[in-house]
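For reproducibility, we list the full input for the adenosine-5'-diphosphate complex.
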Amino acid sequence: MAESTELKCEPKIVIEEKDIETPKTGAQYDGKDFPKFTDDHKSLMKTYLTKDLYNKLKDKKTKSGVTLAHVIKTGVDTPHLGVGATAGDEESWEVFAELFNPIIKGWHKGYDVTAQKHKSNLNPDDLNFTEATLKSFNKAVVSTRIRAARSLRGHCLPSNTTKEDRLAVEKKLRDIFENKFTDDLKGTYYPLGKLTEEQTKELREGGFLFQKPRPTNLLYFSGAARDWPEGRGIFHNDKKTALCWVNEEDHCRIISMSKDGDLKSVFKRFCEISNTFEKNAKIMYNDTHGYVGTCPSNIGTGMRASVMVKLENFNMNVTLLEEACTALDLQPRGSKGEHSAAEGAKWDISNKQRIGFSEVELVQKLIDGLTQLLKWEERLSNNEELKDEIASYRSNKIAGQILRGMDMSQEDIQKIRNLVTTKVNALTNSERETKRAEAQKWEDEVMGCKTLEEQLKKIDEILKKKGEERGMKLEELEKSRSEDLTKKIIEFYGNKRADTQDRVRALFKAIAGFGIFKIKPATKEENKDKKEDNEEKKDKPDTNETEKTESKTEEVAEKKETREETIEREKNEEKN
Ligand code: ADP
Ligand code: MG
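The corresponding predicted structure, in tokenized form, follows.
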């Protein structure tokens, strides 16, 4: 996949700069042995780096000299990171694939680079963005920004590069900015070290500039902060609507911005920048990973499209905003970037996924999602109770994902949805509250278990007991399928016990979801028979069988509220 890198980076493992801080772990990882992981280490890298895998990969080296020790150093020295591994060059993705592939799968919700292809679409005309949408966005949106990473084939990535190679990257990029960016894109390149204090302040206040990596983020102990600020810089066009960051986390971060809600124009400019690079340089890209650079979290499109939008009503109920975003595959951030607060009720709303969807598809999700979010915001201003609607919106989506993953047809899923909707609509508010309180009690019980395995057992127990109380005998799971499910969950959770309420809830959902599947047998032939069987029974609403289906689906609806979304959020909180 990767083209060989000519340049020998010969990176050192331990970073020997005078001002480098000591990691929380006491000393920097020297790469001599299997890392000493502690309970503080949270990364997917730790999860997948078994001793066997370590031994298998420890003597491998890319042509430019990147070793396993370089790849994992950041995650060893910075325990709280969610990913915990960096690529030192393009070839790292291939040489250390046995570590990177499961990390990618874990981070990007099952995206499998060994089986899936990533498609890119940088044609703004494929977006559906009407005049009416533009008008409503312009009313609510303060600014729009789309960014992605591009790295140059044949050079080492920032964590493992040399001074010379870093400068060579800067030179190539600078040439593109100064000679190939024309018309609207024309502008100036500013080496970071030469910015005046005033320029720095102005750029920072506009949200245009990046920060020096700190010891808490992914870049620092990976080696990407060496020789700061040499070789780093920022380009912007005269209107400050096209920006490029040089040699921060990736060789180049391309950014398109505007001070309105015109997502289509911002995307169009983003595509122009990307195409200009594509025409004038060899970019790291392949058809399974999409665009690659330093961090597994930014592969695929590597794109985050965001709008800064005032949401005064949602701002008074942040949990509801998070739930709403989750339902729409969006992510809310504060107004000064990740982990910051939303000043003046200003929220940064962006696409959550990066790979497996094209750029056009992800921007479209933002367009459609924001349209829905603004409708909800408006209804909130009329004091309408939206919580249930948002929760069921989200639970439908998650239930669908899980059940599809279990080979259930869209049609069957829709049938279940209809049943659930009918059932839930029939509940009074106080009935809903009672059910919620009950669910909370189960979750607390599961939260008290010490291991993931115990938690899974407990949930099974609760669901069975609950079923019996309702007069339905749950079928025993076929052993192998039950094991499959357990395996999947363990893979997903990295065998760590579910330690937040959301994670516990997600476990309930997965298991209850499988419960539904149980009444839909696995093989196609059987499936067909049973389907007809079920159809018949559903047509007669008073039979026991229907009751059984309804009760189970209802349980799933209640329990299926926040699956991967919360996990994604947690992971993002740890992100660089
Ligand atoms: P990323 O990882 O995509 O670069 P961060 O969350 O680190 O995003 O934010 C980087 C900077 O970009 C922050 O200062 C943030 O306020 C700013 N920013 C993000 N989205 C927008 C937007 N739509 N309009 C204006 N500024 C934005
Ligand atoms: Mg960031």
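The longest helix spans residues 359-381. The pocket of magnesium ion (ligand 2) is lined by residues 338 (CB under 6 Å). Both points were considered when choosing residues for closer inspection.
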